[in-house]
């Protein structure tokens, strides 16, 4: 299964650039304001059954409180590239040792309603990696088998109204965790790329 993931990704030598694949939709909502660069780590724990790593944000955060997300965040001026950002943020948020992470490639950039252009970095995480959530940011770290997302019946589609615009949304529900918003959209991008790999 990891071979299919690898074939679906943009190679490490060809990182994606803005605008995001959803730029037209975001322009309707945000106009042409500059999107701030950010990166997330879509981590797949190696094993017989690869598992994707998610976080639950703490309830007291000012944005996206309590939501499921990938570890990641805003690009710092000192970050060399999106991989640097994703690894640094994963270390800060969930205590992930970067020496146990092997970047595989990228998905397409994705723009968020909060004004970021996210570069998703897909990577293998060694089976022995352990997580230590930062209590001020992360309430929980959990894993979902990649196979769960490959079952099309687990993908739910719906439409929501936001600032006078109708938006097509996707979500997944796994063991009481609702995976939606930007996280689900990036997952759908991965699934679509895997279908055409």
From TrEMBL:
It holds the Pfam family NUDIX. GO terms for molecular function: coenzyme A diphosphatase activity; metal ion binding. Residues 35-166 form the Nudix hydrolase domain. Residues 1-21 are annotated as: Disordered. This is CoA pyrophosphatase. Keywords: Hydrolase, Magnesium, Manganese, Metal-binding. InterPro entries: CoAse, NUDIX_hydrolase-like_dom_sf, NUDIX_hydrolase_dom. Its cofactor is Mn(2+); Mg(2+).
